[in-house]
Design goal:
Shape: globular
Number of domains: 2
Number of strands: 12
Largest sheet: 8 strands, mixed
CATH class of the largest domain: Alpha Beta
CATH architecture of the largest domain: 3-Layer(aba) Sandwich
CATH topology of the largest domain: Rossmann fold
Strand order of the largest sheet: 6-7-8-3-9-10-12-11
CATH superfamily of the largest domain: P-loop containing nucleotide triphosphate hydrolases
Structural class: alpha/beta
Helix content: 25-40%
Order of helices and strands: EEEHEEHEHHHHEHEHEEHHHEEH
Radius of gyration: 21 Å
Distance between the termini: 54 Å
């Protein structure tokens, strides 16, 4: 037998459907993806595409009125789809850590940030006060916070947004989880700080072998950070594969349009461009391609029947009836250039 064995699967999601409004509408449709040890997988797509709902399902914290209609979620190949609240509580921190967009909303404004990290260690790891204090300083150093003792005694209002996000990352890795789910963790940050957080996540992946599921609306950021990318549109996966391959050879019209507005050549530059039209309302029942109404390359076959993901190369899939049409990319390019 030759070659290296495949890395261990940390998170697996298979054929996941999520309903909203107490089951009145289906917002996530047949999502399948996986994240392996030492891998960063990006989820990208416009607001309302299902990225955050998928992540919340993977964390066992779906909002009220939302539920899993069908499908499975596994952590280290163990089914956790219908884990009890207590089971999820045990898994949070020690198995799965999370980092969200607005760190200040997850920290108590009246307590020092160090005491809040230390409290996690005392509760989850059963550490004593002195050991938790020392471990917190070690974590602050690991996430690039200078003068960790000073930061320990500061309250959230005394720290910048970038520093607060580093504190949240320290909390997320404090109990040595195998998976980090980062939902728009860099979106609200200055581009310079954003670049620093991206490098920090890469370093943590390399040093600790973390698996990371990273959510963004921006393919430019995804390119800088991720190994693979899953493109969401209106609750479905429309394309997935290795980042380099999708950036260089996108095969779905929606991915091609995203790349046109993402400034992928330089993720610190932002173009004031948008994709024409609006996505369908959440839960809308549509026959055929859900992007067809916005797609300049749509033909009758796009609206005739459900469209499956087509395998294009190892690990690369796209959901488009024209996926092998050599004229497709030219149509999208011409339409975007004309705007």
């Amino acid at each position: 037998m030759t070659g290296n064995p495949p890395p261990d699967e940390v998170l697996g999601i298979e054929d996941l459907y999520i309903t909203v409004h107490d089951g009145a509408a289906t917002a996530v449709r047949g999502i399948s993806l996986s994240v392996h040890t030492g891998e960063i997988v990006g989820l990208v797509g416009e607001s309302g595409s299902g990225k955050t709902l998928t992540c919340r399902a993977a964390l066992g914290v779906l909002p009220k009125g939302c539920g899993i209609e069908q499908g499975t979620i596994s952590f280290e190949r163990q089914d956790v789809t219908h884990l009890s609240p207590r089971g999820w509580e045990r898994l949070h921190g020690t198995g799965i850590g999370a980092v969200f967009q607005d760190p200040s909303s997850y920290l108590n404004p009246s307590l020092t940030v160090g005491s809040q990290v230390a409290e996690v260690l005392r509760v989850k790891q059963k550490m004593g006060r002195r050991a938790a204090h020392a471990k917190t300083l070690e974590l602050f150093t690991a996430v690039g916070l200078h003068h960790p003792e000073l930061v320990f005694h500061q309250i959230p209002a005394e720290l910048s947004g970038g520093m607060l996000q580093r504190v949240m990352i320290a909390i997320a890795i404090s109990c040595e989880p195998r998976l980090i789910i980062a939902d728009e963790a860099t979106t609200a940050l200055d581009v310079t700080i954003q670049a620093e957080i991206i490098e920090l996540l890469k370093d943590l992946r390399d040093q600790r072998g973390l698996a990371v599921l990273f959510v963004s609306h921006d393919l430019a950021v995804i390119r800088e950070l991720c190994d693979r990318v899953v493109v969401f549109y209106a609750g479905e996966v429309v394309e997935s594969g290795p980042v380099a391959e999708i950036i260089e050879r996108p095969r779905h019209p929606y991915t091609q349009a995203l790349l046109r507005v993402a400034s992928v050549g330089d993720y610190q530059r932002r173009e004031l461009e948008v994709i024409a039209g609006q996505p369908p309302r959440v839960g809308a029942e549509i026959t055929g391609c859900r992007f067809a109404e916005r797609c300049p390359a749509a033909i009758a076959a796009c609206r005739a029947a459900a469209i499956n993901l087509s395998r294009l190369s190892p690990g690369h899939q796209a959901r488009c009836v024209r996926v092998n049409d050599p004229e497709l990319a030219g149509v999208i390019e011409a339409e975007m250039a004309a705007r």
